[in-house]
Fold each of these.
Amino acid sequence: MTLHINTPLIESRQLSAIAQRAIWLKIDALQPCGSFKLRGVGHACETYHARGAKRFISSSGGNAGLAVAYAGRRLGLPVTVVVPETTTERAKQLLALEGATVIVHGSSWQEANQLALTLASPDDAFIHPFDDPLLWTGHATLIDEVAQAGHKPDAVVLSVGGGGLLCGVVEGLHRNGWQDVPVIAVETEGAASFRAATEAGRPVEIERISSVATSLGAKRICDQAFQYRATHRIESVVVTDRQALDACEQFLLDHRVLVEPACGAALSLAYEPHALDRYANVLVVVCGGATATLAQIRQWAAAI
Ligand SMILES: *Cc1c(COP(=O)(O)O)cnc(C)c1O
């Protein structure tokens, strides 16, 4: 049994026509809690549950927290999520709907995270949003499913926040013998911690997050994501918030699925003529995201 589902893999007529090459979509927006996060979080929670954990603790008011809340409910364990005051009402409601106990603390994620860590007793499992090998092994199932479908792409396009999805996809490519398939790692301006690490030659903390793609808002990528650059071809691409937001609108029209700007960032490459010119057959990870409404996306778009 796994907590995540096997998601649709389809060739997009609309995106293929614009990009003038085959664009395949792995639609993880359709996971039960709206994003790919359930793959890794589900695997981590099942593993910690098997090791005797009595409660899960998270400090994410975003898709990672939602996935922990979902996993806890399915496994019959209580979940506590500590979120900062900046967390939207909608996110808190979604967490409550999954039965999680929500504690609001501090003005930033750092403060919420600090409290979450002190709450964790030896019987609890703290679920990190991106930096845990168990998460990566779970995220890798996304590539397993593509391999099982017998569809080998020339490149994989994905979004990068803290780098958990990137680590999982690279792990998946390697465990399916596809180590020759490059990964195109997309971030938005104002959340480009992978680019910053690439330029500095080591993972560095960016000063502040100033992108509407809040789910990409890790100030520093995990070490493993940086280290994979030595053994796997990973291209760094940075797009604007405008490109990410436009891609959300266009994707809703083309495929009737609403995604967050964090996911729009990856999709925007397929909507940008020539951005993928070196590849004939591209897989885009539609990572999803449940925290943005259409009204919010339009409000952001109107403000920039
Ligand atoms: C978490 C998340 C990301 C980024 O994933 P990382 O593992 O932090 O790199 C991208 N898109 C969505 C919708 C997310 O929830």
Note: The longest strand covers residues 22-27.
Amino acid sequence: MIMKRLLQTLVLACIPGIITSDPEPLQDFCIAAAPGDMAANPHSMFINGSPCISPTLAGSAHFMTSVLAKPGNTSANPFGFNVTLTNIRNLPGVNTQGLTMARVDIALHGQVPPHSHPRASEVTLLLKGTLLVGFVDTSNKLFTQQLRPGDSFVFPKGLTHFLYNIDTVSPAVAVSGLNSQNPGAQIVALATFASKPSILDEVLKKAFMIGGQDVERIRKNLGG
Ligand SMILES: *[C@@H]1O[C@H](CO)[C@@H](O)[C@H](O)[C@H]1NC(C)=O
Ligand SMILES: *[C@@H]1O[C@H](CO)[C@@H](O)[C@H](O)[C@H]1NC(C)=O
């Protein structure tokens, strides 16, 4: 009897559609529209993802992009990096596949500062240069490695991580694969000190154990 029940449960669990989890969010949030919103302003509507064209209209070009061929310009960025991403606009065939590719260019002594991707794990392959990479887990333990060309490193989903170019002569180039078509990126320094509107000074003073002038200086340095 117990065996039969167990078997039934297992069989039910294996039939797709009977037991499914909620879809993963593809945006930071998706506020439910009220009845009538759609009719009032159809162009202001978002869905969790992007609609698809008819499969009969699909062509090979929808699955190809050269967007990662060109280096990003790192001089315009205060941290000395530039990330170029595939997305559903420059690579429409990636829609619903749960994938993003990133080209990461990092200037001499530049870095991708501590940041996280709320919706994706990431694996980075270093093509050129020397990088010190690392992430911090939720117990605040640091995992760090020095990468040479050909080396790869995994950044687990949602954890704060960084990539720092320690090469003395050459810029660094890496490619990353991320398992979401919209990984999202939140740079810790900007989220805390350059949000719009600003987080209350008292909160930042206490959170970072600094004075009001420090808050002002950091905010100004980060363009907040
Ligand atoms: C990244 O590089 C591209 C191509 O050179 C440039 O158009 C873009 O402004 C750069 N982005 C940043 C944030 O500097
Ligand atoms: C890179 O960006 C800088 C600063 O915005 C600009 O002066 C320079 O012309 C750009 N270089 C290229 C190759 O686009």
Note: Residues 194-224 form one domain.
